[in-house]
Amino acid sequence: MSPPKVPEEWLRHVWQHQLFDTSHLQTRDGKPVRIIFPGTPNSDGGPDFTAAKICVGQTTYHGDVELHIDDAEWQAHRHHLDPHYNAVILHVVLTAGDDIQPAITSNRRAIPLLVLHPFRDNRLHGAREDAFLGTDRCEKSPKISCRALHEALPDGAMMVLLRRMAAERFETRVHTLGERLRQLIDERQRTLCEPYPRYHGNPDDIPPPQYDYTRKDYASRALWDQLLYEGIVEGLGYSKNRVPFRALSRNLKLEVLRHFTITDSQTMMALLFGAAGLLPPARSVHNRESRSYLRRLRRRWRELRPLLRIPLLHEADWLFFRLRPGNFPTARLATLCFLLPSLFDSDGLRRLIGIFSTEEWAVNKRVAALMRLFDCVPDGFWKNHLSFSDEAGRRGARLGRDRIIELLINTVVPVVHLYGRLFGNRPLQTHTQNVYCALPASRENTVTRTIREQVLRSGILPSSAWMQQGMIQLYGFYCTQNRCRQCDIGATRFPAIIS
Predict the structure, then answer these.
(1) What separation, in Å, do the N-terminal and C-terminal C-alpha atoms of the chain show?
(2) Residue 11: which of 44, 33, 36, 38 has the closest Cα?
């Protein structure tokens, strides 16, 4: 049977909303299928739905679901070679031929096949009509509930709200970093063994062990360096690779890198790329310069690997799909190698705190000094490459202005503010808050554009990073969470919109 001319986005809509007869589903080889949870839609690289829960036969599987109009598309899209699809538990297609073979993952596992066409009903036909008629019933991005009511709100009131939201977001970040700092102290002192003591009874009724942290606990410079290092490395991952970058920073700690020489970029490259699982075989690269560079790094990694007892990541942990080449994990890891000497040498933390605590400096001078800390110069290879195979544009592997601003506002400024708070340094706290308010706005993203178009109807344009942070906080913690009663606008100005 030839596949119907419908877009795969329509099939995603059908699967997400279960618009077919689910009462007697069977795989192609006759095993009963029960869909407990169809999964969460995935708009990035990898399978169409993640974290699904599906019973096939007598076994309940937790994993991913991949959808295709035609069964042959699994092979045509080369999913059988991509380790990102190794967790797929069900291959769902609209139609399939008579001689279909089961889809195989890159680790040689056969995947159950579900063909939807035999289980069609009126809902499926209706959804198909919508596709042919051009009706889009697929999920849209969330709309702001009171978007039509903000035109009457004075500009001053909106600015007050954004300032409060920005302060709330900053405080949340400081609190998160404080929690991580205490975890690092616990790890060092080996006091964090299990979440509850070994008592009998309901664990929810047993309080966790209490530990009073003292100023002496916070005095270790190595802890603050690790906290800053983790925040910067995680921030290099953007939204798509934040999790593996965080794992890398916790597996390959800064003290391990310092055990070697952080000014030796080749050793740092070998350690970071090797621990990340991003050192491909040299034979897989066609460019002669890249092959030579890779051989040197792999040779150095083979020397270093026996000295490390850490978990290693795999290439399947990283996403390159729908990323600008400048945001590739390979480019960001290379950039980190060139940043290590300026940020984490023996005097790095003291120099950073000095930028904030020098009294005679104006706030714009502090901002300029912080920006310069991230102005690294790549070596000859990374000046012209963003991965081991592709040539780069004119900038090479280095950070742009917008990414530096985000690293400052999400990590550097909150870390130094936390330092001033824990050690009772009020001038340092004041200077960090002033820098936070003075950082310039970065490029508009989807969230800030949504708030600007639906909420800031009076024409207010975000001119600073703190305004953008306020918009992100408003969108992520109030608008999309239906927390209108906790928002100043929804609770007091327009109570009628609250159901």
Answers:
(1) 49
(2) 38
**pLDDT one-digit tens code per residue, 104-145:** 998 889 999 999 888 876 555 544 444 333 333 334 445 676
Q: What is the mean pLDDT of residues 148-154?
A: 57
Radius of gyration of the chain (CA): 26
* Pick from 231, 235, 228, 249: nearest CA to 399: 235
pLDDT band, residue 420 (cuts 50/70/90)? very high
- CA angle 377-381-386, nearest 5°? 85
Pick the closest to residue 153 from 476, 488, 469, 472 (CA basis): 488
- Concatenated DSSP letters for 94-151? EE--TTPPPEE-TTS-EE-EEE-GGG--HHHHHHHHHHHHT---SPPPPPPTTGGGGG
Find out whether 191 and 211 touch, Cβ atoms under 8 Å: yes
Rounded to whole angstroms, the Cα distance separating 412 from 228 reads 7
C-alpha 373/C-alpha 413 separation (Å) is 13
The C-alpha atoms of residue 496 and residue 305 are separated, in whole angstroms, by 63
What residue ranges do the domains of the chain occupy? 8-133, 147-159+446-497, 170-192+210-438
Q: How many CB atoms are closer than 10 A to CB 54?
A: 23
367: enclosing H helix or E strand: helix 363-373
So what's the pLDDT on residue 129?
A: 40
Sequence-ordered alpha helix ranges (H) in 134-285: 155-189, 215-218, 221-235, 242-251, 254-259, 265-276
Helix (H) or strand (E) holding 473, with range, is helix 465-474
Q: Which amino acid is at 194?
A: E
pTM metric for this prediction: 0.74
Distance in angstroms (rounded) separating the CA atoms of residues 4 and 1: 9
Q: Which two tokens stand for residue 148?
A: 């039509």
What is 285-336 written as a DSSP string? ---HHHHHHHHHHHHHHHHHGGG--S----GGG---TT--GGG-HHHHHHHH
Helix (H, G, I), strand (E, B) or coil at 51: strand
Q: Which residues pair with 56 in a beta bridge?
A: 33, 59
Could you tell me the two tokens for 288? 């002669």
